[in-house]
Amino acid sequence: MEERPTSVWGSNDFWQRSAAWVTGFAAILLIWLTFDTGAQIAMGSDDDLKNGVTKRVPAPTVINYKITYEMSDTRGHEVPVIGEKELFFGKEQSVEEAAALLHVGKLTSQSKNCMNCHTLLGNGAYYAPDLTKAWLDPAWSDNGPYLGMTGKSTREEAMAEFLMHPSTYPTHSRMMPDLGITEDEAKGLVAFMKHMSSIDTNGFPRNFGRMQGAIHGK
Ligand code: HEC
Description:
This protein has seven helices and four strands; from the N terminus they run ααββαββαααα. By secondary structure, it is mainly alpha-helical. It has a single domain, classed as Cytochrome Bc1 Complex, Chain D, domain 2, CATH 1.10.760. The strands form two sheets. A two-stranded antiparallel ribbon has the order 1-2. Strands 3-4 form a two-stranded antiparallel sheet. α5 packs across α6.
């Protein structure tokens, strides 16, 4: 009897080879992506900031600079702009001081579980405003309500004061509870939030300028 020609689609050999190739290709792609992402999110240095080298995640000393955003037509969303120098809690923070502030802020954000209510860099809850760009919230600006309310003259002091005594300054129907945050922890948290606001997150959260403005009824 004549052997029936078998189609390639029915051949075990074909599928086994394909599976091996696809697995091999995906493994190489993943390894490449891991290194590519690692390079993208590696923290920049203080020298990068001084030399105007743009890094997605700037050095902790970015807290010594003014941070604003501008629309990028090529990228189709807002991108961070590291501007001129500005004092942070009344002084220019050294490399060591800035790193220490960020360290305290990060640990405090974890121990006090800010993510339980807020979102940070895409992780957390939306019970309360997204904190990724909270530093830029116009409510903390010179014309915003928080400065007058807290009796402070700078954004960082007003934010720290709010974090230590949130229930004294309720601005929404939902109130942030007092979490027993000390002054050092509050300063660290503000540094942590300022640094986070300088991270290039590909425009996330979308339209945060308008979003945060909307949250504060502007
Ligand atoms: C139990 C829920 C809860 C936790 C936990 C919490 N918050 Fe809040 N937070 C809120 C609510 C609700 C508001 C809005 C209240 C208001 O503005 O009066 C708020 C407001 C804020 C604001 C002002 C936001 C803006 O855009 O201006 C900041 C900053 C903030 N929280 C930081 C923190 C940090 C840092 C932590 C962790 C140390 C934290 N919160 C933990 C509920 C929480």
